[in-house]
Amino acid sequence: MDTTEHGQVRGPAATVDVDRSDPEYRAWLKEAVRKVQADANRSADTHLLRFPLPEEWGIDLYLKDESTHPTGSLKHRLARSLFLYGLCNGWIRPGKPVIEASSGSTAVSEAYFAKLIGVPFIAVMPRTTSPEKCRLIEFHGGQCHFVDDSRTMYEQSAALAAETGGHYMDQFTYAERATDWRGNNNIAESIYQQLRLERYPEPAWIVATAGTGGTSATIARYVHYLQHDTRICVPDPENSCFFDGWTHHDPHATSDCGSRIEGIGRPRMEPSFVPGAIDRMMKVPDAASVAAVRALERAIGRKAGGSTGTGLWSAFKLIAEMVEQGEKGSVVTLLCDPGDRYLDKYYSDSWLEEQGLDIAPYAAAVDDFLSTGTWPC
Ligand SMILES: *Cc1c(COP(=O)(O)O)cnc(C)c1O
């Protein structure tokens, strides 16, 4: 990535191979922006679901169900924002591929938008990505390019962009700035709108897991901008460096291997992760994430991805603290993507065994919490 001497990202706009004032290019650009905006205009807001808790606690738990977007995850919002940002910056050009480093969900959504505006799409992703996500990327007309070491995803994406004259979207850098965090029906504004008629319309906590960090940055900035008292908690899975980097104020923190919880947990402190905006982080064992997401199905009849379990586990822990302190209020966490993408992972006992994950003690802890309100550790 090309940077100025001030460390500012110059972006790929330096490669001028299209005349920006060419009427044909401008007509293409207008049409591409219109198509992306029209997709948003055709879409309804995602639901805020209630997770049932014992009435006497005086605490309400909600899940913002991001699985109902046209491409099935919260990455639909991100992909829309990144396409608009890339188009309006003149970075995405007719006939040139869009390339992304992605563990899957972003690539699924970006493949959809690339097809919508008629440009090729290539996803650079870890070989361990679930086959269902690869199938979805190809379904939307995208290509999958696999790497063995997930840490090389970024450089391989940049190299592929240079080779093809395409645009490396770079979600991990641009997620936080491509999103309109002050409002414009972003995920935070939508949550507050949907809580308006609830008994605790201002949540005590909003829980958001971090992959790019974009969602937690958007929510945290919005909360501060509108002067809410809500606190933001970001739970982090095993094999991710975000928790250590946040705890020790270390922007160079790294981890050695990839996260098992798809969509979240990163081996480096991503530029889009904004630690200063966050109130609290928690480390969540992967087995706890799986136990929590399975409890979700028993409670509301819905399967979700592993990251939803990570967030839910953290929300349970925050609620146990509220119960202990006699605090009433509401807590919001996210249902990030649907569980049918992971039937051979988080919903497969043989996968758990292969990974050496024993969810039994965590499942017992969740059951105990849901009946007593107390946290076992
Ligand atoms: C990307 C992703 C997240 C985290 O969102 P970010 O805005 O990238 O931090 C959580 N869950 C899933 C399934 C994801 O794909």
Automatic annotation (TrEMBL):
Q: Which residues carry this modification: N6-(pyridoxal phosphate)lysine?
A: K75
Tell me the SUPFAM superfamilies matching this sequence.
Answer: Tryptophan synthase beta subunit-like PLP-dependent enzymes
**Which superkingdom heads the taxonomic lineage of this protein's source?**
Bacteria
Q: Which Gene3D superfamilies match?
A: 3.40.50.1100
The coenzyme or cofactor needed here is: pyridoxal 5'-phosphate
Keywords recorded for this protein, A-Z: Cytoplasm, Lyase, Pyridoxal phosphate
Recorded hits in InterPro entries, A to Z, give:
Cds1, Cys_Synth/Cystath_Beta-Synth, TrpB-like_PALP, TrpB-like_PALP_sf
The record's catalysed reaction(s) read: L-cysteine + H2O = hydrogen sulfide + pyruvate + NH4(+) + H(+)
Q: Name one Pfam family in it.
A: PALP
Q: Which family does it belong to?
A: Belongs to the cysteine synthase/cystathionine beta-synthase family. Cds1 subfamily.
What is the name of the protein in this document?
Answer: L-cysteine desulfhydrase Cds1
Organism this protein belongs to: Streptomyces durocortorensis
- Taxonomy of the source species: Bacteria, Bacillati, Actinomycetota, Actinomycetes, Kitasatosporales
